[in-house]
Each structure stands twice: as structure tokens, then as C-alpha cells.
């Protein structure tokens, strides 16, 4: 079976950065290990003429289940989530290390990336405008999965003696399932998750990001004639230094950067999208009509309706990572005594990533009609769409790619650090070693074209969803009680905004 396009579709050819004999040797050796793993994780089955990746089914079915299980709290709890992010219910005396906004910004920085730029273009190129509709639907459903996993992340987190916290799937799988008499299963699932998380952090969350950011920098400065061509290792060293300076301080340091970086990069990208839309206002109604009608059309490429639906769901799943479990690690560090608060905050993440940013990318591509040319794909198609109004957009795109890549590296470094501490019994030494290794892999990613290595690490990211979602199903009852208790407290005004509290 063909392996589906990976989460963040490669925007530039692999030879955009240096390819040496050593790289080729590593490629050949590692391919013998990675190819079977990648083929298994991204196994597809034919459905009415379209290839359906089973990992997408795994993620989407869970999202549908938890949307129903939580009573559509992804919609009903949206307003309260905004109030929490604005700090209306925050108490600085609660246990934790970061604010609700900082936790959200860190998690969003790990998901908003090249998939929002290149992945959406791939979906529309294959499935047409209708794929956008199903991408939005999948984004709304994914909000429920994030709600569940991040509620569990805070509930079962461990508060350390030094005031730091450790949380995420490793802890709710081991601690939560132990409460239910499944300690051995929980331990196995937690270890598998942690190993996959480290692999994903080093590759898809690091090497791939530095590789594509380097390629984009070289492309925008002259491609083969760029003075930076062949200088990937030096660009990688700059990235490694910028990453290293931040991750030394742990989640507090990372959060201080991401809570400023995420709003800026989102505003930069969305601002450019709004400019394109403003110049094509007369085409907007037709674009929405194409998106809706194309979503249900029996004709078209890639299997018609089924193919369009699959493309939309696949891109959403690969973009927002709902069900992967990574975001629960960042959200677990929040200052709160109510686990459900962070569950509510986390539901905003797929909304921002998929419903807002991915949809804006799709709308720009559809209203400009560039997807019909068939001459560009991936990030090149997105760039071409923006260039119809903003001739110098490649420069903006390069800045966006670098910022997206950098923020993703920061978030995934934290995920990898926490997974390392879990595997090595909370060893600070092991965590420091991971930080050094992570920065080293940043340089490798920028200088090499290690395709199979990156493909393998991408498969590790999605392998994280296997133990994670099993745990979510087994702990579904715990989540439902936690959410019900919290909502009852809100209704009874046992929990009120800070401005309405009276010191007793």
C-alpha cells in the first residue's frame, strides 16, 4: 500500500539542502529499518477508489466518540474556554508553572507549522475545494479529543517538590490505569508512548523543521545562487543556539517565548491572508459555494465524495494532532486546581490550528484559483496564491516558515524532555543529555537530507496516538465525571471569576 503524504508535506525538494555520500549511506541503511515501520503506521486501504489511511480512521473515530461522550462540550464550552484564556478564573496561588494562555501558546506552537501552509495545499490539489469543508468538520471534532486528553493530563500530573510539574499521557496512562486495576497495561502503554514521543521530537518535531526552514531561507535568498547554498550546517548551528538558549530554562522559558511568538506569527500569516481576500472579495461567495458543493459532489478526483472527505479529514488530523497526546504534556504545566479548566482551554487549539489558520490558507488558494493550474503543489501552491496579490510574499512566507519551525522545535523539545524524564525515573542528567542531543539533531536536520530518518520519526509521532487513545477510551468515565463536577460548580457559582471573588 502506498504511504500517505506525511503530516507536514515537504515544501521543497530534498536536494534543496546538501546531500553528501555520508547522508546517502545513512539513508540506505536506515531505510531498511524505517520503511516497514512507516508502511505499517501509515497503512492505507482502498475505499471507493480512494486510499484511506487507517491511522486517520483511528483519530477521527476517537474524535467523534468523545464529541458525543462529552455532550458536544467542544461547542458548549467554547465561551468559557475564552474566559479562562483571558485569565478571568486564574489564581496565581494554584499549583503549576504557566498561565492558561502560555500553556495554550506552547501547545499551539507545536501544531501550527508547515502543515498549515503546505498540507492544506496538498488537500485541495487532490480533493478540490470540498476538502476544506471536511477539514473544518474534523477540526471541530478534534476539539473534543484535546478536551479529554488535556483534562486527564492535569488530573494525573505529578507535582514535584521544586514546584515544577510533570504530566501528559505517560502519567495518565500509568497512574490512571493503575487506579482502575490495570497497572501493568498502563505502564506498558506509557513506556511505548514515551519512546515514540522522543523519536517524534527528534525527527518530525526538530530535524524536519530545521531542514525545511533552512531550505526556505536558501530558496528566498537565491536558491542555487544563494550565498547560503551549501551552508546548511551553519544555519543549523544558529537554529540550535536559538533553541538551546530557550530550552535550558524549561517550560517557563519556553512559554515566555511562545506566548509572544505564536500571536505574532499567526497575525503575520493571517494578516497576509486577509489582504489577499480583501483584493478578491467578489470571489469569496463563489469560493464558499465551491467548498460546500465540492464537499458533497459525487464527481471529482480521488474517488469523488469519499476522496474529498478523506483528504479533508487526513489534513486536519495531521495538522492539529488531536489524539496524538503531545499537547497534554504542555497543558499539564498550567496553574490550576481544576483539571477540567485546561481541558476547556485545550479545545481552542484545533480551532485555532485547523478551523482558523488552515481554513484561511484554503480560502486564499480557492479564491485565487491557483489550485487549478496543476503547475505547483504544497508550499509552492500556497506561495503562488499569495503572490497573485503580494508579489513579495515569498519573503513573508520564509519568515512564517522559520517562525513556525522554530516554535515547533521549542514545543517538541519540551515534549521530548518530559518523555525522557519519565523513562529515566525523573533524572535531571538524562533531561540535560536530551537537550544536548536535541540541539545536535537541529544541526543535522538543517545540513542533511535524511529522508528515511525523518519519515520514521514522523511515523513515531502518529504511533503516539495508539497507546494514547487506548488510554482515553479506558479513562473516558473519569473524564466525564471530572467535566460534570466542574460544570456543576460553575452553575452553582462555587467557581466564579476572580473579579467576583470575596476574600473571607
CATH class: Mainly Alpha
Count the beta strands: 4
Query: CATH fold name, please?
Result: Amino acid/polyamine transporter I
**Individual helix count:** 22
Shape field: globular
What is the mean predicted local confidence, pLDDT?
Answer: 82
Beta-strand content: under 5%
Architecture (CATH level 2) name:
Up-down Bundle
Low-confidence stretches: 1-20
Class by helix and strand content? Answer: mainly alpha
How many structural domains does the protein architecture include? 1
- Rg (CA only): 22 Å
**First and last CA, distance:** 66 Å
State the helical fraction.
over 70%
Strand arrangement within the widest β-sheet reads: 1-2
Largest sheet: 2 strands, antiparallel
The string of secondary-structure elements, in order, is HEEHHHHHHEEHHHHHHHHHHHHHHH
Give a topology summary.
Layout: H1 21-41, E1 44-47, E2 50-53, H2 54-69, H3 73-76, H4 78-85, H5 100-111, H6 114-127, H7 130-155, E3 158-159, E4 165-166, H8 169-179, H9 183-220, H10 232-247, H11 250-279, H12 284-296, H13 304-320, H14 326-331, H15 339-346, H16 348-368, H17 379-387, H18 393-423, H19 428-447, H20 451-463, H21 465-474, H22 476-491
Antiparallel strand pairs: 1-2, 3-4
Helix pairs in contact: 1-20, 2-7, 2-21, 4-15, 5-11, 5-16, 5-18, 6-13, 6-16, 6-17, 7-8, 7-12, 7-13, 7-15, 7-16, 8-9, 8-21, 9-10, 9-18, 9-19, 9-20, 9-21, 10-18, 10-19, 11-16, 11-18, 16-17, 18-19
Amino acid at each position: 500500500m502506498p504511504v500517505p503524504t506525511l503530516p507536514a508535506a515537504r515544501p521543497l525538494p530534498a536536494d534543496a539542502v546538501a546531500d553528501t555520500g555520508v547522508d546517502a549511506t545513512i539513508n540506505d541503511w536506515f531505510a531498511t529499518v524505517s520503511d516497514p515501520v512507516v508502511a505499517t503506521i501509515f497503512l492505507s486501504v482502498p475505499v471507493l477508489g480512494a486510499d484511506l489511511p487507517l491511522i486517520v480512521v483511528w483519530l477521527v473515530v476517537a474524535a467523534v466518540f468523545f464529541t458525543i461522550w462529552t455532550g458536544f462540550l467542544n461547542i458548549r464550552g467554547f465561551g468559557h474556554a475564552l474566559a479562562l484564556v483571558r485569565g478571568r478564573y486564574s489564581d496565581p496561588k494554584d499549583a503549576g508553572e504557566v498561565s492558561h494562555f502560555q500553556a495554550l501558546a506552547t501547545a499551539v506552537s507545536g501544531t501550527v507549522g508547515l502543515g498549515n501552509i503546505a498540507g492544506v495545499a496538498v488537500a485541495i490539489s487532490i480533493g478540490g475545494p470540498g476538502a476544506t469543508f471536511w477539514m473544518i468538520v474534523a477540526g471541530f471534532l478534534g476539539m473534543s479529543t484535546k478536551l479529554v486528553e488535556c483534562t486527564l493530563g492535569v488530573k494525573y500530573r505529578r507535582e514535584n517538590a521544586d514546584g515544577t510539574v510533570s504530566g501528559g499521557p505517560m502519567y495518565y496512562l500509568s497512574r490512571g490505569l493503575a487506579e482502575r486495576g490495570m497497572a501493568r497495561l498502563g505502564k506498558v502503554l506509557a513506556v511505548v508512548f514515551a519512546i515514540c514521543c522522543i523519536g517524534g521530537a527528534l525527527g518530525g518535531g526538530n530535524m524536519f523543521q530545521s531542514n525545511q526552514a533552512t531550505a526556505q531561507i536558501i530558496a528566498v535568498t537565491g536558491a542555487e545562487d544563494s550565498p547560503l547554498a551549501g551552508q546548511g550546517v551553519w544555519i543549523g548551528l544558529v537554529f540550535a543556539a536559538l533553541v538551546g538558549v530557550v530550552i535550558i530554562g524549561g517550560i517557563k522559558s519556553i512559554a515566555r517565548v511562545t506566548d509572544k511568538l505564536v500571536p505574532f506569527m499567526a497575525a503575520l500569516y493571517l494578516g497576509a491572508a486577509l489582504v489577499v481576500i480583501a483584493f478578491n472579495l467578489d470571489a469569496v461567495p463563489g469560493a464558499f459555494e465551491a467548498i460546500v458543493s465540492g464537499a458533497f459532489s459525487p464527481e471529482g478526483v480521488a474517488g469523488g465524495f469519499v476522496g474529498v472527505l478523506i483528504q479533508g479529514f487526513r489534513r486536519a488530523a495531521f495538522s492539529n494532532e488531536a489524539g496524538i497526546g503531545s499537547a497534554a504534556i504542555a497543558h499539564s504545566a498550567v496553574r490550576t486546581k481544576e483539571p477540567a479548566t485546561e481541558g476547556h482551554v485545550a479545545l481552542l487549539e484545533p480551532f485555532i490550528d485547523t478551523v482558523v489558520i488552515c481554513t484561511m490558507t484554503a480560502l486564499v488558494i480557492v479564491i485565487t484559483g491557483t489550485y487549478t493550474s496543476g503547475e505547483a503543489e504544497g508550499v509552492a501552491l500556497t506561495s503562488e496564491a499569495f503572490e497573485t496579490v503580494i508579489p513579495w510574499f515569498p519573503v513573508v512566507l520564509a519568515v512564517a516558515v522559520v517562525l513556525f519551525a522554530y516554535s515547533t522545535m521549542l514545543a517538541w523539545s519540551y515534549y521530548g524532555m518530559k518523555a525522557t524524564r519519565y523513562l529515566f525515573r525523573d533524572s535531571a542528567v538524562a533531561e540535560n543529555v536530551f537537550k544536548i542531543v536535541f540541539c545536535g539533531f537541529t544541526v543535522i536536520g538543517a545540513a542533511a537530507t535524511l529522508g528515511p530518518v525523518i519519515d520514521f520519526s514522523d511515523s513515531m509521532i502518529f504511533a503516539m496516538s495508539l497507546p494514547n487513545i487506548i488510554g482515553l477510551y479506558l479513562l473516558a468515565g473519569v473524564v466525564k465525571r471530572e467535566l460534570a463536577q466542574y460544570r456543576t460548580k460553575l452553575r452553582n457559582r462555587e467557581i466564579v471569576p476572580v473579579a467576583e471573588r470575596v476574600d473571607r
